[in-house]
Design goal:
Number of strands: 2
Radius of gyration: 40 Å
Structural class: mainly alpha
Order of helices and strands: HHHHHHHHHHEE
Helix content: 40-55%
Shape: elongated
Distance between the termini: 104 Å
Strand order of the largest sheet: 1-2
Largest sheet: 2 strands, antiparallel
């Protein structure tokens, strides 16, 4: 087996000196092959990224770590407050339109800046924006609002945002809780509110998780029946029907004490 080739390594400061002076013989006198020295003199200096913390003392590094920890804690607290406010007030772009192109560009710019820290999926989940709608915004769409997924009635059968809100209010309203969803679609057409089929109402309710209000009308049945406090206070009669081979029926009666649960007769 051939021995692995050993690559020589040189200090980058020595290479920079040869590039700046152009003196190839200087490198050759110090044991560098002439071909390697010529490559150093011809090639441009590569861009080197250095860390500023390498020259800092330990006290400065500790101080900077403490400041960064404090700043990180404040940012986390602010982020928690913002997320809670979004959930409490139900602020989401899922069923909202952004008609202003400038505001939309600001939102896309903020999403692009957050990609370095958060994934695209997590960022879109926080603001309530679907991935498909995000990519539609990124592409140039032929729509006045630059939002083809929410452009009002870009198709004749497409419902507007106002009509979807009416559907949501009627589906989740206590006033129409006794009306089936299919009948609710017909009622909305008679009231000239929303002209959509029953299948569209079912699809919207299932996709958005709209729950019909359900309230108990009948009182809850008691779990415990009649209970006697002493023997022979309450009797029960249990009847058993027996069918014989000739087709006739025989009735057997059992008298049961409610307190002891024994058959008395």
């Amino acid at each position: 087996m051939e021995a692995p080739r050993i690559r020589r390594r040189y200090d980058h400061r020595f290479r920079d000196m040869v590039r700046e002076t152009g003196d190839v013989e200087l490198a050759v006198r110090n044991g560098v092959p002439r071909s390697t020295a010529r490559d150093w003199s011809r090639l441009a200096s590569p861009k080197v990224i250095t860390l500023d913390v390498a020259s800092m003392s330990q006290d400065d590094l500790r101080r900077e770590v403490l400041e960064l920890r404090d700043r990180n804690a404040r940012l986390l607290a602010i982020l928690r407050l913002v997320v809670v406010l979004l959930k409490v007030f139900e602020i989401s772009l899922r069923h909202r339109r952004v008609p202003n192109g400038e505001k939309k560009r600001l939102l896309l710019r903020a999403v692009d800046r957050s990609k370095d820290v958060l994934s695209l999926r997590s960022t879109l989940r926080v603001i309530g924006l679907t991935k498909t709608r995000y990519h539609d915004w990124k592409r140039e769409e032929e729509c006045e609002l630059e939002d083809a997924s929410s452009c009002p009635q870009s198709h004749p059968q497409q419902l507007t945002a106002e009509e979807r809100e009416v559907v949501k209010d009627m589906v989740t309203s206590d006033e129409y809780r006794h009306v089936p969803t299919a009948t609710l679609a017909i009622l909305a057409q008679r009231l000239a509110k929303v002209f959509a089929s029953a299948s569209t109402w079912h699809l919207l309710a299932r996709r958005n998780g709209w729950r019909r209000p359900r309230k108990r009308i009948n009182p809850a049945k008691p779990r415990l029946g009649i209970r006697a406090s002493s023997p022979n206070e309450i009797w029960h009669v249990d009847t058993t029907v027996l069918r014989l081979l000739d087709g006739s029926h025989v009735y057997r009666y059992a008298v049961i004490d409610n307190y002891s649960r024994r058959i008395l007769a």
